[in-house]
Amino acid sequence: MSIVWLKNFLKRNYLFVILAALAFIIHFAFLACPNQTIFDEVYFGKFAAAYFSREYYFDIHPPLGKLIIAGWAWLVNVDLVFGFDKIGEVASSQLFFTLRFLPALFGSLFVLLFSWFAYLATRSKQIALIAGTLILLDNAFLVQSKIIAIDIFLVFFEILTFCFFLLYQKQKSYSKKWFTFLVLTGIILGLTVSIKLTGLATIGIIWVILLTKIFSQKMSEWLSPENTANYNSTKLNLSKQHILKRSFRMFHENLIAIIIIPTIGLFIYMIPFYIHFNLLTKSGQGDAFMSASFQSELKNGKENTPNPLGFLEKFKKLNITMYSASAGLTATHPFSSQWHQWPFDKKPIYYWYQAPTSDNGEKIGKIYFLGNPIIWWLALGAIALTLIRMVSKKERQKIAPFVYFLILAYFANLLPFIKIKRVAFLYHYLLSVSFAILVLSIYLEKLWQKDKKVFAALMILAAISFAILAPLSYGWPMTPGLDQFEMKIIELLS
Predict the structure, then answer these.
(1) What whole-number distance in Å separates Cα of residue 264 and Cα of residue 269?
(2) With 316 labelled, which of 36, 327, 419, 461 sits at a CA distance of 20 to 30 A?
(3) Alpha carbon distance 316, 189 (integer Å)
C-alpha cells in the first residue's frame, strides 16, 4: 500500500522531487569554500561564539538567529573558539561547513517552501513549480544561504507564517484544524520577528488582509474553505440581514485572529531573550550598551550590588536599547544602498576576495551578493504591470485577490526602509523580491499557456544568467580574463 502510494506520489510530483534535489545540490556544493570568513560572518560568527564563552555581546537584532547557529554548533559538538576577527581569516573547512550548514539547509528547503506557498496562494501546480525554479536560479538567495548569516532564516519564517495563515483561513471556523493553524501562525510569526524586527511587517500584512476580507467579496472567497459556496454567485439571493450576519460572524472570527496571533507571537518572541540572558552570564564587549545595574549582574562586571533585574525589566531595556542603537547608527559603507535602488538589482555587495598567488595559478576569487538580473528585472516589471492594471477599473476586476495580497506584502516589506536612516544593503530586499517573484510566476504561467517558446526562452535566459554569475556566488577561482568579464557585469549594476 505504501509503495503504491509512493509511486503515485512520485508520478504526480516528480518535477518537484527534481527541484528538491537540485536545491540541495546547488546550496550544499562548495559550502566549505572558501574556508575563510566572509563579510557579515565576522559579526554573526562572533555572536554565535559568544554563547560558548558566555561573554555578553550586543546586537541590534533579536537573538534567535544567532542562537540557532550556536545551538547547531553545540548539537554537533563544535566548540566555537575561532575569533571571526576579520574578513578573509582562515579556519578549518570543517568549521565553516558546520556553521554554514543550517543556512544552506534553510536555503534548500526555502525553494520547496516557496513552491508550497505559491500553491497555497494560487492553487496552481504550474505556478508553484515556476516560482520554486525562479528562487532556485536566483544568485542572491543562494549566496545569502551559503554564509553564516541570519537573513535566510527571516525570509523562511515569514513565508512559512503566511503558509500557515492561508491554511488557517481555509479551515472550517472553530474546528480543531482552524485553531491549530491559527496558533501555528502566531508561533512562526514570533520566530520571524525573533530573527529581525523587520519581520513585524508580517503582522501588519495579516491584519490588513483580515480587515479587507470583511468588506471584500473576492478576498473572502479566496480565503474561504474550498467547500464553501461561492459568495459571488449567491449574493443576489441573500437578504441584507443575511449579509449583516455574515459580516458580523466574519468580524468576530477575524477579531480573534487579530488578538491571538500577535499575543502568541509576543510570547514566542520573549523566549529567545530568556535563553540569551541565561547563557550570557559574563562581562563582554556588549556591556557598554547596557545599564550599570545590568552590567553588575555579569561575572567580572561592574562592582555594585543593586536589586537584581527581573527578566521582564531586562527584556524591556534591551529592546529599547536595540531600537535606539539601530536608529542611531551613523556608520557608512562603500557597498551600502538605498531602498529605491534594490528593485533594479543595483549596488551588489562585495563579500570576499582572494588575491592571486602562485599556489592558485594566479587566479582570483571573489564573492558578490547580487540578484539574478533577469529574474529581478522581470519581477520588477511584473510589479509595475500589476500597478498599471490597478489603475484601470476594467483590468482591476480581472486581478485575482491573491495578487493584491502579494503586492501588499511586497511594499510592506520595502517601504519601511524609506524612513530607516541607518546603513542598508541590497540583501534587505530579499523579502520584497520574494513576493515580486511570485507575481512574476503568475504572469509566466499565463505566458506558458499562450506561447511556450517565449516562456522557455525566458527561463533559459534566467538559467544562463545564474550560470554566468555562479563564479561570483561560489567564489570559484577565476582567470584574469573571466574576472574582467564578471566585473563588467558588476560595474553595470553598481
Answers:
(1) 9
(2) 419
(3) 20
Residues 6+ apart with CB under 8 A from 270: 315
d(CA 377, CA 437): 10
Cell numbers standing for residue 289: 550598551
Smallest CA-to-CA distance from 22 within 127, 126, 177, 142 is with 142
Note the helical H segments in 54-124.
64-75, 93-122
Please check whether residue 144 is in contact with residue 430, taking contact to mean a CB–CB distance below 8 angstroms. yes
Going from N- to C-terminal start, the domains of the chain cover: 150-281
pLDDT digits (tens, 9 = 90+) for 371-389: 999 999 999 999 999 999 9
Judge contact between 162 and 204, C-beta under 8 A.
no
352-359: Cβ within 8 A, 24+ apart: 352/34, 352/36, 352/38, 352/39, 352/87, 352/88, 352/475, 353/88, 354/34, 354/36, 354/88, 354/475, 354/477, 356/480
Residue 282's DSSP bridge partners are 55, 299
List average pLDDT for each run of 10 residues in the chain, which is 494 residues long: 75 90 97 93 92 93 96 89 85 92 97 97 96 98 96 97 96 92 97 96 95 83 62 45 67 89 97 96 89 85 72 94 85 90 96 84 92 98 96 88 95 92 92 98 96 96 98 95 94 91
Examine residue 34 and say whether the peptide bond preceding it is cis (omega within 30 degrees of 0): yes
Distances from the Cα of 316 to the Cαs of 10, 239, 280, 293, 312, in angstroms? 50, 51, 17, 14, 6
Distance, CA of 321 to CA of 51 (rounded, Å)? 20
- Neighbouring residues of 89: CB distance < 8 A, sequence distance ≥ 6: 36, 37, 42, 82, 83
SS (H, E, C) 324-363: HHHHCCCCCCCCCCCHHHHHHCCCCEEEEEECCCCCCCCC
111-123: pLDDT as tens digits: 999 999 999 999 9
CA-CA-CA-CA dihedral for 485, 488, 493, 494, to nearest 10: 130
Distance of CA 380 to the CA centre of its chain: 18
Nearest to 280 by CA among 295, 292, 302: 295
Q: Which residues of 258-291 are buried (b: 16+ CB within 10 A; e: fewer)?
A: beebbebbeebbbebbeebbebbeebbebbebbb
Residue 199 near residue 158, CB atoms below 8 Å: yes
Cβ 214 vs Cβ 248: under 8 Å: no
Distance, CA of 476 to CA of 456 (rounded, Å): 29
Contacts of 389 (CB under 8 A, 6+ apart): 395, 396, 398, 399
466 vs 449: CA distance, rounded Å:
25
DSSP annotation of 198: G
pTM attached to this predicted model:
0.93
Please choose, from the candidates 156, 142, 221, the residue with its C-alpha nearest in 3D space to the C-alpha of residue 195. Answer: 156
